[in-house]
Specification:
Elements: H1 6-15, E1 28-29, H2 32-41, E2 49-53, H3 59-65, E3 70-75, H4 81-87, E4 94-98, H5 106-109, E5 114-119, H6 125-134, E6 139-147, H7 148-155, H8 165-173, E7 174-182, E8 187-188, E9 195-202, H9 213-225, H10 231-235, H11 245-255, H12 268-284
Parallel strand pairs: 2-3, 2-5, 3-4, 5-6
Antiparallel strand pairs: 1-8, 6-9, 7-9
Helix pairs in contact: 2-3, 6-8, 9-12, 11-12
């Protein structure tokens, strides 16, 4: 039985007396063409192990199981675990895991590298993505459906309102692109916004060379803490790190950045140069 059509999805929900929880961002896909495009975007092969976050009742799981070597579906809602176990009872390449994707140790679920493919609940998109990128898991590629405006922030270039901490965090670790836009009409229930499927190809080497990665992200967070301030004022006595005006002025002059510019105008390469110079000045004054 194909899960991803309106009548079959509704029948599964009725059979198991399931009411969808808005708090968990439960919007189930009911369009096979969209699911096929997600699987195609992830370039899944018979050699791939895939971790799916938030499988719901398994429409995407079912599609991926036909192609991938193994699909590990991590579901937080304990009501859905018996439903998933029943649906995938006859599949020898699907494993259902009850757990919170913000806490699960993915390296314990998979030996070797893996891909992440998911229709992510909107409310945990950013923390999930950054956890996957920052915690050293052996992820090759991440293909996820997210709220369209969040996807636009991930791929944004310097100079616009969408460009910020998330843009730099994602682009530091990956090559990011929006693969296609998804209308609300292909979900039950329908969300109020459009979605985007985004492809993040994880780079083993970071986009820029840094002396200290943690310091770099403190600089970025400080710079965007109050977006309308100049870069000079944002970094002076910033909330995430204690820098003096002299240190900031010296660093900006050394790397050739106009102190009147705002953070949204600086590229990731400029932030890297600024961070490396500031790190030397900061450490020398300790």
């Amino acid at each position: 039985m194909e899960i991803a059509n309106p009548s079959n999805t509704k029948e599964i929900l009725r059979k198991h007396n399931l009411n969808l929880k808005k708090s968990l961002g439960q919007n189930f896909l009911i369009d096979n063409n969209i699911l096929d495009k997600i699987v195609e975007t992830a370039n899944l092969t018979e050699n791939d192990t895939v971790i799916e976050i938030g499988p719901g009742i398994g429409s995407l799981t079912q599609k991926m199981a036909k192609v991938a070597n193994k699909v590990i579906a991590v579901e937080l809602d304990n009501r859905l675990i018996p439903v998933l176990n029943e649906i995938f009872e006859g599949y020898n390449n699907v494993e259902i895991v009850h757990g919170d994707a913000l806490e699960v140790d993915f390296s314990q679920l998979v030996e070797g590298s893996f891909k992440i493919v998911a229709n992510l609940p909107y409310y945990i998109t950013t923390p999930i993505i950054m956890r996957l990128l920052e915690e050293g898991f052996n992820v090759e590629e991440i293909v996820v459906m997210v709220q369209k405006e969040v996807g636009e922030r991930m791929v944004a270039s310097p100079g616009g309102k969408d460009y910020g901490i998330l843009s730099i965090g994602v682009q530091y670790h990956t090559k990011a692109e929006i693969s296609f836009i998804v209308p609300p009409s292909v979900f039950i229930p329908q969300p109020k916004v459009e979605s985007a499927v985004i492809n993040l190809k994880v780079d083993k080497e970071a986009a820029v060379d840094l002396i200290d990665e943690d310091f770099f992200f403190k600089i970025v967070k400080s710079a965007f803490h109050q977006r309308r301030k100049t870069i000079r004022n944002s970094l002076t006595k910033a909330p995430y790190i204690n820098l003096s005006r002299d240190q900031v002025d010296q660093a900006l002059e050394e790397v050739g950045i106009d102190s009147r510019r705002r953070a949204e105008k600086l590229s990731i390469e400029q932030f890297a140069k600024l961070s490396n110079v500031l790190f030397g000045l900061y450490r020398s004054k300790e």
